Amino acid sequence: MGDATAWIDQGRRARREGRPDDARRAYAEAIEACRGPAHRRLLLEALRGLARIERDLGDPAAALALYEEAVAVARQTDDALTLAHTVRHLGDVHRETGRDDLAEPFYREALAIYRGHPETAPLELANAIRPLAIVEERAGRSAEARRLWHEARDLYAAAGVEAGYAECASRMEALPAPEEPLP
């Protein structure tokens, strides 16, 4: 599967260099080169790469279809963290198109996988908590949103990601004040 690997590498390079059309072509070639059960990991990588390009180019419908296929392929592998990452990005596309109701179950699934995996990096966990906090906030579930923003803030702090910490702190501050318990 050297051809597929070469196409994937070419797609990555083209994306880094700001050549989305070239990246799109390279990932599409990689997908065609590795269809079939023997090449699931390469197919998954190519599908995810092309989905990122479609998101970059503002085509959520194309990205959605690619992420849906990527999730199906990821479910056939034994790589839980890749599955979580792919499921989270599928949720992102739904959220970005205003479908928080469809995004939420994917975020919850990704978060459950990340929380249950011993090799989950704090930054990866924070990046999974953040979009679920947005969904909770938009749904008016302020207490749960606050809890999630707080957790993500602490994880971003631990990872040294100042922008993530600042966003979480700002979002928490903008939420309505928690209700006082009745006496």
What does this entry look like structurally?
It contains 9 helices and no strands. Helix 2 runs antiparallel to helix 3, helix 5 runs parallel beside helix 7 and helix 7 runs antiparallel to helix 8. By secondary structure, the protein is mainly α. It starts with a helix and ends in a 9-residue tail after the last helix. The longest helix is centred in the last third of the chain and has 18 residues. It folds into 2 domains: 59 residues, no CATH class; 99 residues, Tetratricopeptide repeat domain (Serine Threonine Protein Phosphatase 5, Tetratricopeptide repeat, Alpha Horseshoe), CATH 1.25.40.10.
Radius of gyration: 18 Å
Secondary-structure-based class equals: mainly alpha
Could you tell me how far the N terminus lies from the C terminus, measured between alpha carbons in angstroms? 68 Å
Overall form: elongated
Q: Which superfamily, in CATH terms, is the homologous superfamily of the largest domain?
A: Tetratricopeptide repeat domain
**How many β-strand runs?**
0
Mean pLDDT over the full residue set: 93
What is the second-level CATH architecture of the largest domain? Alpha Horseshoe
Could you estimate the helical fraction of the residues in percent?
Answer: over 70%
Low-confidence stretches: none
Whole-number total of structural domains: 2
- The SSE order reads HHHHHHHHH
